[in-house]
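debug: dumping io for the single-chain case to check the tokenizer round-trip. Nothing else runs in this session.
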Amino acid sequence: MSDSGDFEFERKFFVQDFPAVAASDPSPSLIAQAYLFAADGYAVRVRLQGPAPVELDASPAELVTALGDEAIGTMTAKGPAAGGTRYEAERDLDPLVAGQIVSRAEHVVLKIRTSIWLGEDGWIIDRFLAGNAPLMLAEVERNSPVVDLAIPSFCTTEVSEDDRFRNEHLAHHPFSTWAQGYRDELDLVGPRFVNSLGQNQFEGT
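debug: decoded output
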């Protein structure tokens, strides 16, 4: 979340191939987040986050347990997004309580997060697990609207305004159940990028 009060400013991109530069992150994180409520752009999320285990073939419950004592718990209330800005009020939560909630929740998203710096921006790459595999998304956040962005070549298309790629939607409608339809759509319409947030700059052009 950004440091600008209870708002986040981000842009999000679909990634087809894991970028080699992301492998430079020495400490990727495992994130397990449960959506207790999601409707009309509003959501309540409980997250447990800690160092990613080496073995990722375990069940979701085993992965949550593997987060152990180094985990951090949070609870977040979110509002609808508009123009790359979204209300997000995040508060600390006892990790033991967060873990118990996540392990009991019906709608859970699991992902491995790596972080990299490219130019003046910090980027995260999320590789989703379980029912959302093999989805990969890249996000960039700032303390103000993300304008005049230098977009790396690993960003296939922008999904900042596509609600299907919000985590609360993925928790209820796993990517694996509609991945082929989305790939067919992408082949048909081609890449798209938001043009209302300044001048996009594309790597290699």
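debug: round-trip ok. DSSP finds four helices and eleven strands in the chain.
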